[in-house]
Amino acid sequence: MLHNIRDLWARLDSPTRHAITRTAMWIVLIVGTVYTISRSDLMQDYAALAVKVEMPDKIVFPKSNSTVTLPVSLKLKNNTRDTVVLEVPSPCHIIRWYVTGMEGEFIQAPAEEACAQVVMRANLPAGHFSEDELTIPLDAQRYHAGQRYKLMLNYWGQDGSHEFEMEME
Fold first, then answer.
1. What is the number of H-type helices and E-type strands within the chain?
2. Which one of 97, 111, 121, 165 is separated from 137 by 20 to 30 angstroms, measured CA to CA?
């Protein structure tokens, strides 16, 4: 088959070979660009309010610790053309989280805490972000090395998630 392709290529005139080469280069460039954009933050989420969760993909538990802190950065973007009013029933509802296994089985959530029942409101202008950072204490006894987990978050009433893998030192 390779011999047939070489013969075909040799029989083509120079302008045709150049056209085929340029077409192949454009195809590679387009496929590469689409792949790169799909794997990057350049791809826009067009939901009215989009949550982005940034955190490590691998968490390493030291043998000597029973807990490790997981640093999490949250961004909520207003993709609408108007200012959005964010509202939750209490300060404890601004950020809520829990961890599941990949099949959805419950692993861990924060301990219940007393929270003032004061409605929280904030304005998020069009095209702007609301950002928060938190550290989540993970209990080593609930996790297994080599397993993948999913951190589920609710930030100002909008859901987000991020998968991570657990490793032991």
1. 2, 10
2. 121
